[in-house]
Amino acid sequence: MSGWTKKEIVERLREPEPASLFAEAAAVRLAVHGRCVHLRALLEIGNICRANCLYCGLRRCNASLERYSLDADTIVETAFRAVKGGFRTVVMQAGEDGGKRPDFMRDIVASIRNFTDAAITLSFGEWPEDAYGMWRQAGADRYLLRFETSNRQLYSRLRPGRTLGQRLSCLEFLRKSGYQVGTGFMVGLPGQTVDDLAQDLLLLHALDPAMAGIGPYIPHPRTPLAGKYGFRKGPDWREDPVLKDCEAADMSLRCLAMARIMNPFLHLPATTALEVALDNGYGRGLSAGANVLMVDVTPSRYNRAYDIYPGREPGKDEDPAELWKRCSSALSALGYAVSDSRGDGKKAAPSLVPESAGTGNYPCSCSIADCG
Ligand code: SAH
Ligand code: SF4
User: Fold this and answer.
1) What is the CATH number of the domain that holds 309?
2) Would you call 187 helix, strand, or coil by DSSP?
3) 363 domain-assigned
4) How many distinct structural domains can be found in the chain?
5) Is the pTM of this model over 0.90?
6) Shortest CA distance to 188 belongs to which of 144, 146, 225?
7) Which tens digit of pLDDT belongs to each residue from 209-223?
8) Ligand 2 center from residue 372 Cα (angstroms)
9) In the structure, which protein residues have their CB atom closer than 6 angstroms to any atom of ligand 1?
10) Span 72-116, pLDDT tens digits
11) What are the angstrom distances between the C-alpha of 51 and each of 41, 55, 57, 330, 370?
């Protein structure tokens, strides 16, 4: 039980002036995670996808996309450079490539595990339980699988042939296999209401994950959802007089802050989609309670084709070590410090949970002086 009712969450999300919500989230973040930010190296290993999600540019029916799949050597070598450059987590993400056998990924995970104790995170969508188990056995630590929306009807409409129940079963398989599980949802989907978002936050809390990605939906012109497709044009909250000017990115910040307040220990990235949709999205995400940044280390000629949504800054083939340094200086200018720990999921031992927002104290596990 979260102790929060849907009505209370809706009230907080609908606050005409969200500054106090953000301040409360920032206080919880400071108390539990200090000024540390965990950097995760993100490697987009392929854009081939058998699914046909109505919101995503990688969907099967987007014929205009040039497809790629990185070979094993490129993946392992890029992961190696990322770890050498300072990253303590490597995240590999891809479309659901039905042509790839799960043992391909098992061998890659094992090769990476061979040279580093850095965390290995996977995000490849829905696979059978034994594939998840095989990758875990090979050395993967974490798996990211957003539930996307807790509204079952909306989910089935947006993900043809898939159900929310299947997605939640996958999350259960992952947990049983011993992964640190990451999940999350999109904000601003056509037809989404503030009630839906409150339900998303309650589901997130009930799932008790180690991390959660919460970011705005960004329309992609090559997808049916960006056109009419029988949906209303925007999220339903735009009909609410208090929220009529609240864009998906603004609402994402509110949801991020609520997620922080409701789940003090959760690892919460300021998502790339937030940065795309909002000026200073990373900085504002951190101020609203986020404590993680994903840094794209994909070779630039592929990174352009990982076109989930438009507006992402094209990669410049910067060495991961340079990227790490650049992020580190940008963060210290904002008063944050890059954590040198892996940033594993913190299990909320009851005695360590802050008694109330901002008053508890939980020392960060990194070795940076004064971090917490
Ligand atoms: N194929 C895997 C991982 C890649 S997609 C999967 O689906 O789980 C990663 C995430 O991108 C998805 O979970 C979804 O939440 C997000 N995403 C997809 N299309 C998007 C869009 N148009 N705007 C914002 N986020 C999007
Ligand atoms: Fe494929 Fe994931 Fe995009 Fe859906 S969201 S089309 S599963 S890459």
Assistant:
1) 3.20.20.70
2) strand
3) no
4) 1
5) yes
6) 225
7) 999 999 999 999 999
8) 37
9) 55-56, 93, 95-96, 123, 125, 145-146, 148, 186, 215, 217-218, 220, 273, 308-309
10) 999 999 999 999 999 999 999 999 998 889 999 999 999 999 999
11) 25, 11, 11, 37, 46
